[in-house]
Amino acid sequence: MKGDPMDTHIISNIVLSHIHQTPQHVERCAVGIGNQVYIAQCNNEKYVIRCSQDENAYVNTIHWLTELSKLDIAVPKILFYGKYEEYNYLILNYFEGKDIGLIYPDLTKPEKKKIAKEVMEIQRKVSRLQPSHINAGWSWYNFLDEMLERADMRITRNGYFDNGKVKQLKKQISHLDTYFSNIKPIAYLDDISTKNLLIHNGQLSGIIDIDWMGAGDNLTFIAMTYVALMNMGYETDYVEYLLEERGCSDSERKAFLFYSLLFVVDFMGERGMQFGDKKIDVNEEIVNTLNQIYDCLWEKWCKEIME
Hints:
alpha+beta
């Protein structure tokens, strides 16, 4: 069945065919909703193996990792790729570190500030790239509509939240019409929030799980980080450092607040969803927390549009 965990001997055979060593240890990572990720230990070296049954799973990944490496950005190096039985795979080098969300409480304010500075410098480098999926009819409104429609569909289907919040949010787009209509398809890493950003000894060690490239307003990745940190019950000083490093006008600050609400309903839609062999947790506490975050942000939003 698609999405079922692979036998570790398959990973061992993939590694053996290229590294010419049988791994002493193979462990599946907790990350990887769309595909499966493993770490294989061979003597003193570790390798990351990503696997998917999707025939075209890594076409974009290979392209963007290659392009990002040219910009001197710490992304995984593609060591080998191919197909084994029904699985397409990548073998990548291993970065020491953990997702920033896993070690966030242990970071000092100076460490968070330094990481924020490095992240925004990376985003400036990424902005030089040309997104490959842009057509003549590109509009930032398409992104907003797709996010809201997806949240509405998932919330309605899963039944854990009130999709009235999505409908409420849709009506607010007009308050930022001038801002949204001027967004250009500028490349940025849109999925580095509390995950995919590896930290080792208080420093950024690498960026992982890059399967696509965002195009548009890079405030969205900061807003997603903001909502993720609040959802985890953490303080959000790192987000303020990101915003300071980026620089924000009044209209950009207002857009950031809108995006934050957008990601709350997106998170709501994901709860209870099944992705492959993984189900996103949902319980009364999770539901209450996300509802409280939305209500808090909605109150701030209402004050913003009244000013």
